[in-house]
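Methods — Computational structure assignment.
A single polypeptide chain was analysed. Its primary sequence is given first, followed by the predicted tertiary structure written as structure tokens.
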Amino acid sequence: MLIAWVLHPRDTRGRFFPSIVGVALDGFGGAVAVWDLAREGGYHDVLAKRVDSNGNLGGQVWAAPPLQLDPEGGSPFLSVTNQTVHYTLSVPGEVSIELYNVLGRQLSSSSFFHQQVGAFSTSLPTDGLASGLYFLRLSTPLGEAVQKVVVVR
């Protein structure tokens, strides 16, 4: 959601004050404000600042959570009928795990609604898969991670 407005107030000397150009919700209870600061000579600086749900400025920049496969012996080659997928959430939200073949066709999908912060694991059925290369995609509120999966029969 973007709330946008532009204000161009001037001080008593005719200089521009910073103008708020927009505010966007960040999806974690906070917001990001973007503003324009007019400079002499017609130049403008565009600045942004995040405020969290407690009113604190700045804060941690979130990265996509790691996606780990934990096959037997740490090998990326899967030969069992089910594989365990481990992932970690640093913010609560919906998670989906999808498996694709090399042509981009989705072979399976699992969704988990409103998971809390923490480490999770789920079973990935591989018994119907032929030997070959596949891609596993984990989608979370913070982004997506993709990992290669090799099945050997």
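Note: Residues 28 and 100 are 29 Å apart (CA to CA).
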